[in-house]
Design brief:
By secondary structure, the protein is α/β, with parallel strands linked by helices. 23% of the residues lie in helices and 20% in strands. α5 (189-198) links the parallel β10 (179-183) and β11 (211-214). α1 packs across α4. It is globular and about 55 Å long. Bound molecules: iron/sulfur cluster. Iron/sulfur cluster binds next to α2. The site of iron/sulfur cluster has 9 residues, from α2.
Length: 215
Amino acid sequence: MPLDQADKQAQQRRRAMPEAAPSEKSGQVMLTLRTHDGTEYPYPRPEGKATFNNTDGDGISWARWSWNPITGCLHSCEYCYAREITMRFKQVNPAGFTPLFHHERLSAPANTKIPEQHRDDPSWRRVFVCSMADLYGRWVPDVWICEVHDVMMTNPDWEYLLLTKFPARYNKVELPPTAWVGTSVDEQKRVRIAEDAFGWCGWSSRPAKPGAACI
Ligand code: SF4
């Protein structure tokens, strides 16, 4: 289904069926999060407003922030640091590494402020989106992508760095104007996938002016 159509359907569904009301368990307010196949998990509502995570100490010099409105991935890369970290902290990741939508994190771009002393440093405007997932994985519901894209488009002061092993999906969406899109090429077979997806010369005519990069 085209994403714009999926977006309309998602908005209609949201209007018809509001988000599950938070419940209370042992004094803790609980949210209901859902996986890609609809399985529900109770999740403690975080205290305070959602914000980006500062990547200081993560060894990422090209972006000062990460943002994970989706966590988990069904790919099985042996070298995956995200799976390792997620499983190490399983008590705060109820679904383990199964893809999970964190709707409570969608307000992070609006809530995060750049410290005054870093206002002129471009790396403090860059956000690595879904560093603990593949936002464009085949299993990711269209409505999840639409919701994340909506937020990026309504918060264009940030530069969003997107990375996937399924770059063909970029071609089915309207990319946020301030997004940089990339693909991971960790095996020879992914070269063809990247070439097919980016179409190299065709990208210059895309309206979103993305920066294509292979990492
Ligand atoms: S695609 Fe990325 S997030 Fe998914 S398993 Fe591979 S390294 Fe991990």
